[in-house]
């Protein structure tokens, strides 16, 4: 992979990791469901006027938009709301990565394949990491917050299964057109749960930092992040690109510590090591034959 492409991939995972701190800053002013509504609204407009709708059924686009919008980000924002959030940004960036294992289990159920021994070990390592988080009550995560992030991860995994049915498409156009279906339900939920008064108050107090957080979510996280990631996947083997996603929680936890002063005691590092170790095992173990084949091909030339 050319060095410029490596830097692009690094920029994407840095944006995705630091995004959890940006969410926390935006939630200081905006109610969570309104914040999520604005995030997807700005992802749609004005980009939708310049990107052709993917040649996919409307129901597939709607399913993905609902799962990502309401299921993943709606729950994520609710868990991270307010000064007494149910989970800290650093831990949220770590726990949400369990979507990899939920995706694995859903895929196994669909294809009827057996879970391989290394995958069981990876699952046990990640579960142990989640157990370490659940056993500590220092304010970094509550049981409810942990449950909400796990449900958000499950929604993300379900969206991955829907996205897999889409096949190879323009990922940027796909994200924009699926975001259309995230906006109405999020807006309705915001009106019902948060109410017009709280929504108006949040908008009235929104400053430049708040709107920057919204735009970071829409433009940086969605349009740039997913667009560049899809562009890289189209030019390189997934085995080269996908493992870099392991850096997302590292950027998330380090950015939370740097910007928000989130502590990193030993138990958090242990939990991160277990979850990331499980993720690494699940992602990298299958690559051994692929890397061996590449090395053999290179040696034969």
Quick rundown:
With 301 residues, this protein is an all-alpha fold.
Describe what you observe in this structure.
- The chain has helices at residues 3-26, 32-44, 58-79, 89-95, 99-111, 117-134, 143-166, 171-179, 183-205, 208-235, 238-241, 247-260, 266-284, 287-300.
- Helix 5 packs across helix 7, helix 6 (117-134) packs antiparallel against helix 13 and helix 8 crosses helix 10.
- The protein has 301 residues and is mainly alpha-helical.
- The chain contains 14 helices and no strands.
- Mean pLDDT is 83; it is low at 291-301.
- The protein has one domain (3-300).
Task: From the structure above, extract its key features.
single chain; 301 residues; mainly alpha; 14 helices
